[in-house]
Design a protein that fits this description.
The protein has helices at about 5-10, 25-30, 50-60, 75-80, 100-105, 125-140, 155-160, and strands at about 40-45, 65-70, 90-95, 110-115, 140-150, 160-170, 175-185. It is α/β, with parallel strands linked by helices. The protein is globular and about 40 Å long.
Length: about 190
């Protein structure tokens, strides 16, 4: 029997970006840009089995709200069980481009950080555009989008909505990954 992560990747690779969970090195690089002392709300797109979520929970302030957006029902169920005793952790089974509706329902105006491992190379161009545009709209003006990707082929798309702050290449991960940190671009982007 295959591990759940592998099963879900084989079932739908467009929603699970890799065959194996992320390494400790990649996790560390992703969270290092987060100022946990000031973060009131952190959103994670596609938490999967919770590799990054564990680190976010470990480092967050007790009153920091963590919103986990996951489309995979099996992962949602596992995440709900895993974090049932954690106050301020909300597991939401919905697409990343619907996050604003859920933040409003929770009484949250803006997110301080969005951590995103969505496989943009597998998403339709239209959905990728919607997710990025939506993310820019839900982030505070001084907020940040922290992406990890296995290729740099979508950086031009990311830079339609965000300005780059930092880029790292993490070799100790299978496959090696890029960590891209962006700030919201205030300029409206014409639709394609």
């Amino acid at each position: 029997m295959l591990p759940p992560f592998v099963e879900e990747f084989l079932r739908d690779p467009s929603t699970v970006g890799s065959l194996i969970p992320s390494s400790r090195d990649l996790t560390g690089k992703v969270v290092e840009s987060i100022d946990f002392d000031r973060a009131a709300c952190i959103v994670e797109y596609g938490p999967g089995t919770g590799v990054f979520t564990d680190e976010l929970i470990k480092r967050r302030r007790a009153d920091t709200v963590l919103v986990l957006m996951e489309v995979n029902p099996r992962f949602c169920e596992q995440l709900r069980e895993r974090y049932a005793g954690q106050p301020g952790v909300h597991v939401i089974e919905d697409s990343a481009d619907k996050t604003g509706n859920h933040l409003a329902r929770l009484g949250i105006e803006k997110a301080d950080y969005v951590v995103c491992g969505l496989p943009f190379t597998s998403l339709s161009p239209r959905l990728g555009w919607r997710v990025l545009e939506h993310t820019r709209n839900i982030l505070a003006s001084d907020g940040q989008l922290i992406l990890f990707q296995y290729t740099l082929q979508n950086t031009r798309l990311f830079e339609k909505f965000f300005r780059p702050l930092k880029q790292d290449h993490v070799l100790l991960n299978l496959p090696p990954a890029y960590v891209l940190v962006y700030a919201p671009n205030p300029e409206p982007v014409p639709a394609e």
